[in-house]
Write a structure and sequence with these properties.
The strands form 2 sheets. Strands 2-1-5-3-4 form a 5-stranded mixed β-sheet. The protein has a two-stranded antiparallel ribbon with strand order 6-7. The chain is elongated, with a radius of gyration of 28 Å. It is α+β, with helices and mostly antiparallel strands. The protein contains 11 helices and 7 strands. It has 2 domains: about 120 residues, Roll (Ubiquitin-like (UB roll)), CATH 3.10.20; about 110 residues, Alpha-helical ferredoxin (Fumarate Reductase Iron-sulfur Protein, Chain B, domain 2, Orthogonal Bundle).
């Protein structure tokens, strides 16, 4: 009976089931995606009613989407568990509530430096920052003094250019005649430069520096620290060290530092950046001393 009715209806409309207009594959995928997001949000809401949550206020900005070009903050209530980091919370918010939420992350072990953010008014690594150590609401913004690409992602090109400008590679005057011979370094010298080698190129120090904010040509603490790492290596060639120090002594080099210690305070790897900058200043003075 039901089959007959269907056939009659099809004949009445003059259109069979096979002739009914079908949506495009893209439209079907988008519809399925919306359904999944709605279901995830519903499940999360049910779960949150019985669990402790933390409120995130996340900076949002998308210059390519009309209606999202005006910066704003979105609220996300994320279920909290012991040991949860800011990066964990952001991933949950993205996967559960809004798949368009954009931020950088990679290793989740405080090594890659990709998830440096401005969290509760301080530069921090999202994967290293425990939510339990922060006051609510947890305010998450992109690094200051950088151009925002989208949401929490900033343009790092200028930072990388500054790092490359100090020629961050090892260059001895001469190499051992035997290809298998080591370029030995004393334990004392290794201890001297050890902390400087821990830089993960996260950009937190550069973002915290008021001098870098006002002087776009200033090398910045990360680049100067990288120069320190090679200039203070006893294996560095004299000629290369001299050229490296010339870069440090330029107008926008070490002498622009005003010893505010902001870079040292925010460094996630505890590198004494300000101390390294001051030591390069002393080296610059000594290299220009003449006795006659």
């Amino acid at each position: 009976m039901s089959t007959q009715t269907t056939d009659e209806d099809s004949e009445a409309t003059g259109q069979s089931d096979s002739e009914a207009p079908a949506s495009s594959p893209g439209e079907r995928r988008r519809a399925e995606k919306r359904e999944r997001q709605t279901e995830k949000a519903r499940q999360a809401a049910e779960t949150e009613s019985d669990e402790e949550t933390v409120l995130l206020k996340v900076f949002r900005y998308d210059p390519e989407v009309e209606g999202k070009r005006e910066p704003r903050f979105d609220d996300f209530h994320v279920p909290f568990y012991k040991g949860m980091t800011v990066l964990d919370a952001l991933i949950y918010a993205r996967d559960t509530y809004d798949s368009s939420l954009t931020f950088r992350h990679s290793c989740r072990q405080a090594i890659c430096g990709s998830d440096a953010l401005f969290i509760n008014g301080r530069q921090r690594l999202g994967c290293k920052t425990q939510l339990s150590d922060l006051d609510e609401p947890v305010r998450i913004e992109p690094l200051p003094h950088q151009d925002v690409v989208k949401d929490l992602v900033v343009d790092m090109e200028h930072f990388y250019d500054q790092m490359e400008s100090v020629e961050p590679y090892f260059d001895p005057d001469e190499l051992p005649s035997d290809d298998m011979a080591e370029q030995r370094q004393s334990r004392e010298n290794r201890e001297k430069i050890k902390m400087s080698t821990r830089c993960i190129w996260c950009g937190a120090c550069m973002s915290s520096c008021n001098i870098a904010a006002g002087d776009n040509q200033y090398l910045g603490p990360a680049a100067i620290n990288k120069a320190y790492r090679f200039a203070m290596d006893e294996r560095e060639g004299d000629e290369r060290k001299e050229k490296r120090m010339e870069i440090m002594e330029q107008e926008h080099g070490v002498w622009r530092c005003q010893t505010q210690f902001s870079c040292t305070e925010v460094c996630p790897k505890d590198i004494p950046l300000t101390e390294h900058i001051q030591e390069l200043k002393r080296e610059a003075v000594k290299s220009n001393l003449k006795f006659w």
